[in-house]
Amino acid sequence: MNQPIEGKVLGKLIAYPQTYTPDILVAVPRSLNRRMYNLEASALPFWGFDVWHAYELGFLTKKGLPVTGVLKIVYAANSEFLVESKSLKLYLNSFNMERFGNNVEDGINQILTIIDKDLNQVIKAPVTLSFFKENSALPEFDFPDYEVLENLKEMAFVNFQSFSENPALLVSTQSNLQEIKVATHLLRSNCKITHQPDWGSAFIYLKGKQTPDLSALLQYLVSIRNENHFHEEICEMVYKRLWDIFQPERLMVTCIYTRRGGIDICPARASHEELLPKNLINSGKLSFKLLRQ
Fold it and tell me: Which of 148, 207, 212, 262 could be stapled to 56 by a disulfide with Cβ–Cβ 3.0 to 4.6 Å?
């Protein structure tokens, strides 16, 4: 049996590279998952970005001074490929004992140039990057007025029984026009290859003549608990289910996952570009961190 592309390094015991190793990066075609949801690259029903925060990037200056910080990576959801997360972790750690720049700023500029080139070649699309040596004093939050589903009083009376993705749970309420802005911090899915649990939060904006019953929506989101997909794929699956079932005028789904292996991945998809979370998708900003990031 042929080894799946996603499994080249994921789920395998691999020593950390001791020197700069760009060829360890693994490109995964987005089409591998999109076929099952009838998502065609030429007619995607969304705008979107994948946002990565990498917490294990460090290097030495030419004088041996260690430099550490957070690397933020943003690239568009219409890229042909995504980068596999463990390969990115190994790649970024390959910089740890390498020397760049006569001073800190020169070194940062050099590694950003290198990473930009390498990722561009892997995903066949532009990326934007920033390196942060310290936290922003007042990070901004994109979802201040979203209602947390599990905190609604009626959820205490809901019987949760489905723990494998079940779109039949999504039933609607009827009105002339409605919109919902809701969130859950109960998102859990599993790695596509290792089946290790991935925890996160989901933020959903939907406007249309049909909107999901909120109890049903939370039951559906809980049903993802045993689904085995990458973070980007979970976000697109939720988006496509809501898009197909409710046929909304406007829709946005953002999934903010907990950091694992020194990286958190936060995909965002929206029917209209202006609905995308502006701080999250801005590579030049560190937006507000959730409890489990």
Answer: 262
Task: Please give the tally of structural domains in the chain.
Answer: 2
Instruction: Provide the residue range defining the domain that includes 165.
Output: 147-275
Active site residue 191: yes
Among candidate residues 191, 235, 255, 266, the one labeled active-site is: 191
**Tokens at 174, concatenated:** 């009827």
Say whether 50 is catalytic: no
User: Among the options 198, 255, 264, 266, which is catalytic?
Assistant: 198
Number of H helices, E strands in the chain: 5, 10
What 3-state DSSP class applies to 234?
helix
Closest by CA to 266, choosing from 239, 285, 293, is 293
Can you give the pLDDT of all 293 residues of the chain as single tens digits? 345 555 555 455 577 788 999 999 999 999 988 998 999 998 999 999 999 999 999 999 999 999 999 999 999 999 999 999 999 999 999 999 999 999 999 999 999 999 999 999 999 999 999 999 987 667 899 999 999 999 999 999 999 999 999 999 999 886 666 999 999 999 999 988 888 899 999 999 999 999 999 999 999 999 999 999 999 999 999 999 999 999 999 999 999 999 988 999 999 999 999 999 999 999 999 998 888 77
Q: Are 207 and 274 in contact (CB under 8 A)?
A: no
Looking at the whole model, is its pTM more than 0.85? yes
Which residue matches tokens 């409890």? 291
Residue 286 located in a structural domain: no
